[in-house]
Structures are given as C-alpha cells and as structure tokens.
Amino acid sequence: MNLEEEMAALVEEFKTTGLTQKTFSAQKGIGYPKFNYWYRKLRDEQSRGATGFMPVRTQGSSLSAETVEVVYPNGVKLRVPGGDLSLLSNLIKLY
C-alpha cells in the first residue's frame, strides 16, 4: 500500500469517528499538519475529480465572439475575450 492509499484509508476512518483532526491524528501517531494536508488534498480531489481539472461551461457555439468568464476556486472572477485563447490559457495556468 502506497502513502496515498494509506492516507486515504485513514481519512475514511477519520470520517466515521466523530473526532477532531487533531485528536484523530494524535491517536494514530501522525502529525496534525500532515493529516490535515492529506485530508484537504483528498477532499479537493474528490470534489473535482481525480484529474484536477474543473469542468468548463460555455454559452454559445463559438468562443471567438464570446466573453469567457474564468472563476477560480477562491471566488475571483475574470472576464476575457474568448478569441484570445493564449490569454485564457495563461490565466488558467496561474491557478
């Protein structure tokens, strides 16, 4: 069993205990920062899929005449011309 599988099993066990992360990680002999990191990492992967990509919704059939809105997970919204795919690509890579 690799580290990710081991931590995933611990996170699933944690969810059934009703304990705080600090208490659970102390009982398992794991540092709280390490457990919290894996908890958040696995939660985020599950919420957006294992690939790390977010779905893109488009309105209309052509990007060239449309404005594209990029919404980052932290809530920041950017509106850019859809025809400028290079700019759009660079904005996505920023996150």
From TrEMBL:
Lineage: Bacteria, Pseudomonadati, Bacteroidota, Cytophagia, Cytophagales
Protein name: IS66 family insertion sequence element accessory protein TnpB
Organism, scientific name: Echinicola soli
